[in-house]
Amino acid sequence: MAKTTEKTIVLKPISTKRVTVTISGDSDLILNKMNDINARTLIDKQKNKQKTVKEPNEWEAIITAMHWRDGKPTDYSEQGLKDALENNAPCITTFGLKKSFEQAVVRNNIDKYSTKFQNSVNIIAPSGLVPITFAKHTVVEKLIAAKKGSPVLSRQNVFAGWSATFDIQFVDGGEYSLDQILQIIGLAGFGGGIGSGRSSGYGRYHIEGVTA
C-alpha cells in the first residue's frame, strides 16, 4: 500500500494599505447608462409582451440614465431632477473606474495583461458607487445612429467642473507600488477617461489629491 505524504501549506496574512484619491475632470463627463424605459422595453420584448402605446416620460429616461448615491429618485419631472441633483448625487461606478485603470495597464504597455493589477488593487465605495460633485449640469440631445431604421434621439446628462473622491486599497509589497498605481490612474484619466463619450474626448481627468 502506498504511503500517504501530507504537505502543510502555510498562508501568510495579506498586508494592505489604503489611500483616498480625488480626481478632477479635464473635460465634461457624460453619464448615460441604460434607462428604465429602455430596460422595460427590452424585457417586454423578451417576454413577448405587447408594446405599450403610452408616451414615455422623458424625465424618467433622463433621471434613470444615471446611478444615484441615495437610491433612484421617484419624482420623474423637471423639478424632480433638480431636487435630485441638489440633494442626492449622481455617481460613477467602481466597476467602470477599475476597468479603465486595467485598460490603461495594457494600452500603455505596463503589462501584457491586467490580471496582476486586477488582483492586487481594489476600489472601495458604498454599493460600488462613487458620487461626483459638479459645477454645472446640462441635458444634451443627440441623434444616435441605429443598427436598423431611423436614428434614435438620446438625451444625455453632461457635467462640467466635476470631481470624485474614492478609496484605493492595494497589497503592500505587491505587484504594484502606490506610486505605480497613481501613475496608472493618471494615464487612465489622460488617455481613456470615464463615463460615456470617451472616444470623443469626454470624461478625461487628472489626480487632484491623495491622502493616507
Structural description of this entry:
This protein has helices at residues 36-46, 58-63, 78-87, 94-107, 115-120, 178-191; strands at 16-25, 29-31, 67-68, 90-93, 121-124, 129-133, 136-144, 152-160, 163-171, 205-211. 29% of the residues lie in helices and 29% in strands. It starts with 15 loop residues before the first strand and ends with a strand. α4 packs across α6 (178-191). The longest helix has 14 residues, at 94-107. The protein is globular and about 75 Å long. It has one domain. The chain is α+β, with helices and mostly antiparallel strands. Strands 1, 3, 4, 5, 6, 9 and 10 form a seven-stranded antiparallel beta sheet that branches. A three-stranded antiparallel beta sheet has the order 2-8-7.
Q: Ends: how far apart?
A: 59 Å
The total count of strands amounts to 10
Q: What string, H for helix and E for strand, traces the elements in order?
A: EEHHEHEHHEEEEEHE
Morphology: globular
Largest sheet: 7 strands, antiparallel
* Distinct helical segment count: 6
Radius of gyration: 21 Å
What is the percent of helical residues?
25-40%
Alpha-beta classification = alpha+beta
Flag low-confidence runs: none
What count of domains describes the coordinates? Answer: 1
What would the average pLDDT be, to the nearest integer?
A: 90
Beta-strand percent range? 25-35%
